[in-house]
Amino acid sequence: MADATDVPAHIPAETESAGTAVVEHQQASSTVSLDHPVPSSHPPGTARIKTQFLVSRPHKRPITAEQDPATADAEFEESHESKRARVHNDGAPAAADAGARKSRAPKRGGQNKNRARTRAQDEINLCSGIAVSGTCSHGDGCRFSHDVAAYLAAKEPDLGATCPVFELFGRCRFGIKCRFAGAHTAADGSQIVDAIKVAEAGEYGPFLNSYTRDWQKIVRSRNLPTPKSDLYFKWLEVAKARRVELHDGVYKAATIKQTDVQTPAATIENETGMPAAAAKIEPPISDQPAVVAADDEAKSLNSDKAAAAAAAIKKTEEKKQKAAARQKILDELPHDPATLRFRCDEKPRLNFRGKTYLAPLTTVGNLPFRRICKDYGVDITCGEMAMCTTLLQGQQSEWALTRRHASEDIFGVQIAGANVRSVLTTCELINTMKLNVDFVDLNLGCPVDAICQKGSGAALLDGGGSKLFDICAGATYVLEHIPFTVKIRMGVHTAKPIAEKLVPRFAEAGVSMVSLHGRSKEQRYTKYANWDYIYGIGKNLRDANSNMTFFGNGDVLSHDDYWRHLDTAAVDGCMIGRGALIKPWIFNEIKERRVWDISSSERFDMLKKFANYGLEYWGSDTQGVHTTRRFLLEMQSFTHRYIPVGLLEVLPQKMNERPPPFVGRDELETLMASPDSEDWVKITERILGKTPESFKFVPKHKSNSYDTQEYQG
Question: The C3H1-type domain covers which part of the protein (predicted)?
């Protein structure tokens, strides 16, 4: 549990009295107050809040009709992933993409797709070399300012007396550009260095999987050897051709058999009207001389026919040689000779039974947020989804999604790709570069149209299990000792779930773990997750004595939800996504099997800790502060949905129930529950100082941000 002593020293604590805080906020905030009490009513889909905390809507700022949380989450995901998909094309033809756009059904509005982002920069762009050491290696050719006096005169005041970067690394790489520069700048303007901390922290400190520009150039040059992937591609090409031959042979045999059944000999009549079986099959007597003449002619084959026969013999021999060469390639890798499927059943399996798992979450599942969840006791964490094609291009921002904090003791990276080659090459690259990961997860559950239209995400579920088997089996092979896992949905179409057919195939392909979201791609986040369907598949795995780890996913928002699912013995654990975004302390509740009525001050301490982690990771200069603020606001687009335990008539809070307007037990609790993004900005100003005049944070949706939709899981 957080308390005042847990808060980093450079983040200013709340010093005003409760009365002062109330007065200040009543003057500045537009959130609801107790001036408008309303009678209790509980329409469907609405959380049951005690009557004394219910209020009518405020009139100062009209709020348009809210969406339900499920639709909100879908739109949040769509808004983020659509942009990524435009950049990270997994090789799909542009024409196909254009066709998909034309045929796509029109969607209702609600997203701020064209929202502008505020550019964060100092008024004077000071040279980084001058800021840190007072010297510049570019000399007169430098494009940035060297006027330190002018920069300091225009610079905003420091945000605190302690620099998080300096405290972590022993020196600050931003020098006087740091928003906490006074903490490490001597009287003469030079930068202070703590040699002991520098030696302890090293170049990257606790941030693992950091990459140099030289490494990035190697990846972009495509000069990294991928022998395992190359061998598998060669094997798969031969195996696919042989599968077609086997399929055609079976099809022809079945066709002949079906023809025999449909036209039995007894029903076929000859010209005399007699059944063909009863008629003698011999030529009429008058035709015998012609047959003898034909036999004589056949015995006198000319030289051309003899040559043709020899060529046919040679062609047959060449076919035999090609068949032998193909068989030699097939024999290079273990496979089932009957199905020509790769066999990789010797892969060590994961033992995650009973461990809590924070789902990979796009944008909001960043490294500082994962650290917050680690503080609350989560066992397993996974990086944000990274696109295979972009990783193979060496794009730095995409590889940054694979970074790991030292506190993440069980950590995986999640990738998404549309074909065997991109997924396997990425996996082998991860293995070759000795990335510090405990598993690699393939995203087969992303429902966002922009991703699925490229053939990635949930789109891979549609089209049978053959391609999926080849991808998963190949990935387990090239990753060697690194376990390979998948995250899936029930299927693409709600009426046609296919997960029960795919999960056993994953086990055959050597997949170490499957996480199943109890919704289809069509459903997105509407209605409740179908845990009965998840239980059924888990029971089938138990009955088959499968040792593949199996997790369920969907709507876990309390320790009661978590342990109820585990008590069925059908799943090994639960992956938690939105539940952790709304209340990151859910992992503490699960570990201690309790309902935590967390106070507003404890929640505020959590936000301050996130800010500290963000400054360590993204930097303590103006850009780093801006990035930290933006992700803190993204975090609040989910945490504001939390309904304090003491306000609920019925426990626990349900995922897709929207609360009616209410006030909290103190002014800070009320402010934290506001769906107004301007109130979220006010909270960040208490932590990171005033925002620039040009700063704007536009929520993902035009109605309000209760409906934010995008986090990927």
Answer: 126-149, 162-187
